[in-house]
UniProtKB/TrEMBL annotation:
The keyword Transferase applies. The keyword Transmembrane applies. It comes from Aquimarina brevivitae. This is Histidine kinase. GO terms for cellular component: membrane. The chain crosses the membrane at residues 12-33, 39-60, 67-85, 91-110, 131-148, 160-177, 184-205, 217-234. Pfam families: His_kinase. GO terms for molecular function: phosphorelay sensor kinase activity. Residues 250-327 form the Signal transduction histidine kinase internal region domain. Keywords: Kinase, Membrane, Transferase, Transmembrane, Transmembrane helix.
Length: 437
C-alpha cells in the first residue's frame, strides 16, 4: 500500500497545488469562481488538477538535474510577474510571464516524455536542432518586442509594430518550411518589403483614416499568401513527382540486376568441362561470355541502348548456348528492320530468349529448336520466339524472369505494350510488341 501511495504521490502534489493557487489567483482578480456552478467547478478542478499533477510528475523526474531548479525558478518568477502585472496594470509584463510559464511547461512535459518513453535526452535533441531553436528564440523575441513596442508607443497602425509582426510571421514560415523559404526568400522579402514601404508612406500621407480603410490596409499584407500557398503546393507536387521518378528508377535498376543467373552458372560449368577436356572451344566461350557480362553490367544500367547493340547481345548469347549444348539445336534468328537508328530499353528480349533455352532446349535430348523473329518498322518492334519443350517437366506457373519482365514493361510503357504467352502441343510461343524511338 505504501508503494502505491508513493508511486502516485505526484497526483496529491498536483491537486494540492491547485487548492493553494486557486484562492491566490482569485484574490488578485485573475479568476472568478461562481459558487452556484458546482458541477463546472468540480470539472475544472479535476482537469487543472490532473494537468498540474503531470507537471509535478515531469518536474520530479528531473529532480536530480539542474533543470529541476531552473524550472522552479521560472515558475516562481512567472507567478511573481502575474501578480506584479495585475497591480501595475502592465499588459507587457503579464504577456511575458504567461509566455515564459507556458513555454517552460511545454519544454518540461516534452523533456519528460522524450526521456521516459523515447529514451532520448533533451540536450542531445537540442544540439541536433540548434538552427531550429535559434529561429524559435528569434520568433519569441520578435513577438515580445512587438507587444512591448505597441503597448508602450500606443500609436494606431504603428509601422514598427507591423514590421515586427511581419518579421515574426516570416520567421514562423522559415521554421515550418525552411527549404521553401530559402528558395523563394528574395521573392518573399521583395513583396513584403514593398508592402511595408507602401504601408509607411500611406499612413504618413493619410493620417486620418476610417476603420474600414485601416482594415483594408492591413488586408493588403494577406494578398501574397495565396501566391505562396500555390508555390508551396507546386513545390510539393514537384517533390512528389521527383520522388516517384526516383522510386521508379530504383525499381528498374533493381529489376535489371535480377537477370537470371541460371545462364551464367550453367555456362561456367560448361566452361569448366571444356577446360578439363582442353577443348578448342574454350577461348571462344570465354570471349563470348565476357562480352555478354560486359553488356549486362555496363549497358544494362542505361535507360536506352541502340537496337544494334541489343541484337548483338542476343546473338552472343545464342552463340554461347550453341557452344555449350552437346547436341546442336535448330536456332534461327530472323531480323527485319527498316532503319538503323532505333533505341530500346536494354535486357527486355533476353528474358524470353533465356526461357526458351532453360525451359525448352535444356529439357530436350533431341530435336530442340528455337525460332526467333524481330520485326522493327515505323517505330514499332515485334519480337516473337517459338520453341519446343518437354511436356513432362512443364509448369503453367510464371517464373521470376517473366514476372520481372512484366514489371519492367509496366514501369516503362504503362499499358502501351503487348505481351502474349501461349503454349500448346509442346510448343511455347512468346510475342512482345512495343514502341521504340
Amino acid at each position: 500500500m505504501k508503494k502505491i501511495i508513493l508511486k502516485y504521490l505526484w497526483l496529491t502534489y498536483g491537486f494540492l497545488f491547485i487548492l493553494i493557487m486557486t484562492p491566490l489567483l482569485q484574490y488578485v482578480g485573475y479568476i472568478k469562481i461562481d459558487p452556484n456552478q458546482t458541477i463546472v467547478n468540480i470539472i475544472l478542478v479535476l482537469v487543472w488538477g490532473t494537468f498540474c499533477s503531470f507537471l509535478i510528475k515531469a518536474l520530479l523526474y528531473h529532480k536530480k538535474e539542474p533543470l529541476f531548479y531552473l524550472i522552479l525558478t521560472i515558475w516562481l518568477l512567472s507567478l511573481f510577474g502575474f501578480v506584479l502585472a495585475k497591480y501595475l496594470s502592465s499588459t507587457i509584463l503579464a504577456t511575458t510571464a504567461l509566455f515564459a510559464f507556458a513555454a517552460t511547461n511545454c519544454f518540461l512535459l516534452w523533456s519528460w516524455y522524450m526521456q521516459s518513453y523515447m529514451g532520448r535526452r533533451a540536450k542531445a535533441f537540442f544540439r541536433a536542432r540548434r538552427i531550429f531553436i535559434r529561429k524559435l528564440v528569434l520568433a519569441v523575441l520578435l513577438f515580445v518586442t512587438m507587444i512591448t513596442v505597441d503597448d508602450y508607443m500606443k500609436v494606431p497602425d504603428n509601422p514598427i509594430t507591423f514590421v515586427l509582426l511581419t518579421l515574426f510571421w516570416l520567421t514562423v514560415v522559415n521554421m515550418l518550411a525552411p527549404k521553401f523559404f530559402k528558395k523563394y526568400r528574395l521573392l518573399i522579402f521583395g513583396i513584403y518589403g514593398s508592402l511595408l514601404i507602401f504601408f509607411t508612406v500611406f499612413i504618413s500621407y493619410f493620417e486620418e483614416r476610417t476603420h474600414s480603410e485601416s482594415l483594408d490596409l492591413f488586408l493588403t499584407f494577406l494578398f501574397p499568401i495565396p501566391l505562396f500557398i500555390i508555390l508551396w503546393l507546386y513545390e510539393q507536387w514537384k517533390w512528389f513527382k521527383n520522388l516517384k521518378a526516383e522510386k521508379t528508377k530504383a525499381e528498374l535498376s533493381l529489376l535489371k540486376q535480377q537477370v537470371n543467373p541460371h545462364f551464367f552458372f550453367n555456362t561456367l560449368n560448361n566452361l569448366y568441362g571444356l577446360a578439363k577436356q582442353k577443348s578448342d572451344k574454350t577461348p571462344d566461350l570465354i570471349l563470348k561470355l565476357s562480352e555478354v557480362m560486359r553488356y549486362v553490367i555496363y549497358k544494362g544500367k542505361e535507360s536506352l541502348v541502340p537496337l544494334e547493340d541489343e541484337i548483338e547481345y542476343l546473338e552472343n548469347y545464342i552463340e554461347i548456348q550453341e557452344i555449350r549444348q552437346h547436341k546442336k539445336p535448330d536456332i534461327d534468328f530472323k531480323k527485319s528492320i527498316d532503319q538503323h537508328n532505333y533505341h530500346i530499353p536494354p535486357l527486355l528480349f533476353i528474358i524470353l530468349l533465356e526461357n526458351a533455352f532453360k525451359h525448352g532446349v535444356d529439357t530436350l535430348v533431341d530435336k530442340a529448336y528455337v525460332h526467333i523473329e524481330l520485326i522493327v518498322k515505323e517505330n514499332k518492334a515485334i519480337f516473337t520466339i517459338t520453341n519446343n519443350y518437354d511436356p513432362a517437366g512443364f509448369t503453367t506457373q510464371k517464373g521470376i524472369g517473366l514476372l520481372n519482365l512484366k514489371k519492367r514493361l509496366d514501369i516503362i510503357y504503362g499499358s502501351n505494350y503487348l505481351l502474349q504467352i501461349d503454349h500448346e502441343n509442346a510448343i511455347f510461343t512468346a510475342r512482345l510488341e512495343l514502341e521504340v524511338d
